[in-house]
Amino acid sequence: MKIEQIYTGCLAHAAYYIENNGEAAIIDPLREVQPYIKRAKLDDAKIKYIFETHFHADFVSGHLDLKKKTGADIVFGPTAEPSYEVIIAEDGQIFQVGEYQIKAIHTPGHTMESTTYLLIDENGKEHGIVTGDTLFIGDVGRPDLAQKIASDLTQEKLAGYLFDSLRNKIMPLSDDLIVYPNHGAGSACGKNMSKETTDTLGHQKQVNYALRADMTKEEFIAELLDGLSAPPGYFPQNVMMNIQGYESFDQVMEKSHKPLTPKEFEAAANETEAVVLDVRHQNDFVKGHIPRSIFIGIDGGFAPWVGALIVDVKQPILIVAPKGREEEVITRLSRVGFDHVVGYLDGSFEAWKKEGLEYDTISAISAEEFKNRYEDIKDVIFDVRKEGEYIAEHIENAHFTPLDFLNDYLSEFPDNETFYLHCAGGYRSVIAASILKSRGIHNLVDVAGGFSDIKTCGVPTTNYVCPSTLK
């Protein structure tokens, strides 16, 4: 059976291309749809259906643009109520793609409309299941997102629905089916996903904690909800864009791809109250950046961090990007619903400096220098990694101030004493430093290389923390 997984690492997202006899289907497309159209043209195939497993929270789907460009029908599962024309599949309904069949299996739990698609080849053999966020490799979808849209859908209630869907709809299927999930490790849509992006259902029944045969519903709910961190703030906004519709990607690119001279850039920042988003490498940002700009590097976990830290998708944004990567930045912002880019600095930061405009820097030291200072600074060390990383191992005496919720910890940073920030490798600590400096907190030093370099220098660490110390 011809099925291709189209994986986008920065979002840990998988879309799927299915083709047979000149007909094709796309499942869970990203915002920019031209790659799917090009792929179908290689097979001289017409895209017939666009299947959505659910209303996505972590990205804006490309289903509307793809329908407009190809004429394909959009298919959602039972109970979906979008604000545009779609086919609402019945549970068990079969769709024909060439000689292949795609069977909709309603699997509520992650969301109420969540649907798994069973793939059946030209010989009638069941090949695999595209599970969306119902079943991941090593995990299942978090059940706390739909309650942001409908308050009566508690996470406990959704977890119960998910238990029933897995037991009654997924687990009875053949062990040799291939599981094709919507996400892999790094996505915020689950908590324990594997780095693998496919597996057999039989193997998942053996190793996935959520598919244990002897698990009661109460045990499932308790384990699923245990350690579930708060979802990024932009998730509900992406859900609503996917339900209600959005501006076309082509229009977003046309209005956003505007080069601005340094003077125009400065004027736009003053007139629009835009966030100045610098996406260069953290080492470049540390050496020089526009005052009060926020760093989120394009070569790190870019889009999810933008969504988690800027939050409001309607926020105007001005971009400072490496030369030649401006279109890429606009594209990746639009994937998570940030469609209000005002423009970008033509010539990047070098043009700003050449114009003689004011710029700022971040104080930074090596891990070796950090070790030399440790005894004198051990009470003013701040760890901005995630809770699990901190609990597993952290520098003795380090304060836990996770980047995801940095605004909740602003009062913990000293006013008149220099303090030190670190993360795992140096990316997140520079993000944190830029946010703090944008809020007028400048008495900070970044530890380049982060915890990985600090450990090699022999700085004392511990792997225990009393949970009461974590907010």
UniProtKB/TrEMBL annotation:
PROSITE patterns: RHODANESE_3. GO terms for biological process: glutathione metabolic process; hydrogen sulfide metabolic process. CDD domains: POD-like_MBL-fold, RHOD. InterPro entries: Metallo-B-lactamas, Mito_Persulfide_Diox, POD-like_MBL-fold, Rhodanese-like_dom, Rhodanese-like_dom_sf, RibonucZ/Hydroxyglut_hydro. GO terms for molecular function: metal ion binding; sulfur dioxygenase activity. Residues 270-361, 375-463 form the Rhodanese domain. It comes from the Bacteria. The keyword Metal-binding applies. SMART domains: Lactamase_B, RHOD. Signal peptide: none annotated. Keywords: Metal-binding. Gene3D superfamilies: Rhodanese-like domain, Ribonuclease Z/Hydroxyacylglutathione hydrolase-like. It holds the Pfam family Rhodanese. This is Metallo-beta-lactamase family protein.
